[in-house]
Amino acid sequence: MKACRVVIADDHAMLRRGICQVIETQEGVSVVGEVGDGIELLNLLSTQPADLVILDISMPKMSGIEAAKKIRATYPGIKILFLSMHKRNEYLYHAFSAGANGYLLKEDTDTEILTAMDTILEGKAFLSSIFTKDMPDILTDMVKNGSSFPGGTLSPREEEVLTLLAEGKSNKKIADILCISTRTVEHHRASIMKRLDLRTLADLIKYAIRHGYTSDE
């Protein structure tokens, strides 16, 4: 593997530590920073050079998707590997639209993270083996052409809110989990229902179950 400086962004400290232990076995690879949210990540990168960022999609204060967009705009040379529990294709599209070079499922971290890093550092796209081999090319073409993902009408944050609502969590609890205000949660909830043409919370929950949002957690 090429020598590289790695920053890890995930709100679970134990997961960050586990990743460090795996990748630091590689000669020339060093973890130069660990952070717990997107804002901390951007602050760190403003002072600490890095070659590769490994980040979670769902983080408090600023999501991984939003952080990746800012990284790609400000530091175009940094490689971005998303680490996520989400298997829905919409998340893949959002990740690659934000400038990702790879998408690794958390369940595959132990077995595939070194391969993912090596692939990305060689300038190629990487996806966990559960996804089809030609998916990176499909996603790249869609992003390049400005196409929207079929059925992907919600933003990453709206999808997070939808998932939590479907789990029965209150607006206040969702606000606490995502580190946003209750009013912002209410705004997202109203936006989701308007976009999906839903009228009641029961309709929203049925939609979430039917489209697999509750299976990602």
Please render the helix and strand layout as text.
Blueprint: E1 4-9, H1 13-23, E2 29-35, H2 38-45, E3 52-56, H3 64-74, E4 79-84, H4 89-97, E5 102-105, H5 109-121, E6 126-127, H6 135-145, H7 156-166, H8 171-178, H9 182-195, H10 201-210
Parallel strand pairs: 1-2, 1-3, 3-4, 4-5, 5-6
Helix pairs in contact: 2-3, 4-6, 7-9, 7-10, 8-9
Question: Which features does this protein show?
Answer:
Arc Repressor Mutant, subunit A; 217 residues; alpha/beta; 2 domains; six-stranded parallel sheet; 6 strands; Rossmann fold
Short description:
With 217 residues, this protein is of the alpha/beta class.
Fold and architecture overview:
It is built from ten helices and six strands, in the order βαβαβαβαβαβααααα. It is α/β, with parallel strands linked by helices. The protein folds into two domains: 4-145, Response regulator (Rossmann fold, 3-Layer(aba) Sandwich); 156-215, Winged helix-like DNA-binding domain superfamily/Winged helix DNA-binding domain (Arc Repressor Mutant, subunit A), CATH 1.10.10. The radius of gyration is 17 Å and the shape is elongated. This is Two component transcriptional regulator (LuxR family protein).
